Every structure is written in C-alpha cells, then in structure tokens.
Amino acid sequence: MMAVLQAERIKITTTRSPWWCTATIIVLGLGIAALMGFGSKFSVDNYEKEIAAGNTPQYELVLPVVSDVLIGVAGLGVMVLMIMAALTVTSEYRFGVIRTTFQAIPNRSAVIVAKAFLVGVFGAVLTGALAFGAFAVGKLMAGSEAGAALTLSGEENWRAVYSVPIYALLCVFLAVAVGALLRQSAGAIALLLLWPLLVESIVGLFGSFGRNVQPFLPFTNADQFLGIARGVDYHWGPWVSLAYFAGFVAIIFALALLVVNKRDA
Asked: Mean per-residue pLDDT for 88-94?
C-alpha cells in the first residue's frame, strides 16, 4: 500500500492542475472572507450614519457569524477541491494511463483508495488551515463592531471551523468515486457541481413534497453540520446529519470500487 501511495503522490504532485486548484482554493477562501468582513463593516458604518442623520435605516442590520466568513472555504473552495479529486481519476482514463496503472498494481481498489486518501488528507489539512485563516481575515476586515459575532466561543462556532476539513475529506472521497464511475471529466465535474448547487435547491420548490424530501438530501445534511442555514426542518441534529452524509459517501464509494473491479479499464 505504501508503494501505491508513493506512486499516486508522484502522479498528483507532478501535474499542474492540483497546484492551480490549490491556489484557487486559497484565493477563494481568504478572498471571500475578506469581502464578507469588508461588506459587513460597510453596512454597519452606513447604518450608523443613517441613525446619526436622524433617518430610519431601510434595512435590518445582520452581523456575520463564523459560518458566513467560512463560506468561501466550505462552499466554493471545497467544490474546487472536488474537481481536483475527480480529475485524478478521469484524467488517467482520458489519456489511457489507467491501464498502465492497473497493470502495475493489479489491486484496483488500492489505487482508488490511495487517490482518495492522498487528496483527502491534503484537502482536509488545507481547508482546516484556511478555515482559521478565513476567520482571522474576516474578523480583521469587519472590525470590532461588525465583527462582534465573529468569535470562537461556544460549540456551534467551533463546529463551524472544524467541520470544514471533515466535510472536505468526505467530499474528496465522493468526487473520486464519481470520477471512477463516470470516467469523463466533464460529466463528473458537472454532476459534482450541479447536484449541491442546483438539484438540491430546486427540490425545495416542489411545495410540500419538496419540503418533505429536503431533510433527506445529502448535501443539505452536510450544510446543517457546517452550520449553514437553509431553512430546512431537519429531523435530527448536526452530528446525525454528518453520519447521514458520510453514509451516503460510503455507499457511492463502495459502488465505485465494485464497478472499477468489474469493468474493463
């Protein structure tokens, strides 16, 4: 297994796309946190100016919380990470390298697990560090007044931080599995992006049926664990939602291993 990990590490670190994806994740994570902090400070300053001028503000002042400034990491950043993870599989199928890989390492499951493990651990470390970085940047840009709710006191605020690397790790395993199942970069990326962004959002538009289905959608449950409000009436708490999402990922990953071992390379 160590030889498999070493081989996959060399393949991943000697291509350009992982480095570009990593840079994009960093820019998105810290950049959006800075924008959130600056936007909240601008909003508070305008609110105070309206009151000082004797006017009634036309909007309700809402201060950002920890999960708000982490949306660049947990949202767009993890999506880029999923793209990177899927490409580790689909790129090999595209260029026919996967046949050579399976000839050198007959244990196909070990190859897929190694890819998911390497990118997953890297993604967890990266997003974990960026979560703290985004919190610090957001609080700095917001200032003392607008950043009053940006604190790491309390279990909910801490969970908003440490949930990000856990979520990133699971998403990498899911992305590798989807890449192994579809084999095509475009299809895998489209599915990984459209499912959480579009499909699960559209479900809520189908009246009472959609509202009844929403609590059972995988990424919707992941959002509850991350502390992202969706206005969904969940049937359980955030930790059960994490277990639910992890179970969904485990099923898809197991299916991918089964298909990879049964299907021709």
From this structure: 90
